[in-house]
Write a structure and sequence with these properties.
Length: 95
């Protein structure tokens, strides 16, 4: 689950505990999408409300190697969230 749309430093937004809870909720909500399911309305809502400052720091090179960036972008855009070109989220940069 890659979610793009401008990021602010974590200090300006959520606490570390809130970010951890948000990542956990996102992983649980979106895990079926990783296995090929289409995103439901609930999963799209999770994609739209997730804070990038919570997600991007955990995108390591190892995790990035497992992500099909083009598919992730299509899914995020399909849920109504804008994906800027050349956006850096952890170890991933969008085309």
């Amino acid at each position: 689950m890659i979610i793009m749309q401008g990021a602010a430093p974590a200090q300006a937004g959520l606490s570390a505990a809130a970010c951890k809870a948000e990542r956990h909720a996102g992983i649980n909500a979106c895990k079926p999408v990783l296995y090929g399911m289409s995103p439901s309305a609930q999963r799209c809502e999770r994609i739209r409300v997730t804070h990038l400052e919570c997600v991007c720091p955990i995108i390591t090179p190892k995790l990035a190697a497992l992500i099909n960036v083009d598919r992730a972008i299509r899914l995020v855009q399909g849920c109504g969230r804008r994906v800027p070109r050349h956006f850096k989220c952890g170890s991933i940069t969008t085309p």
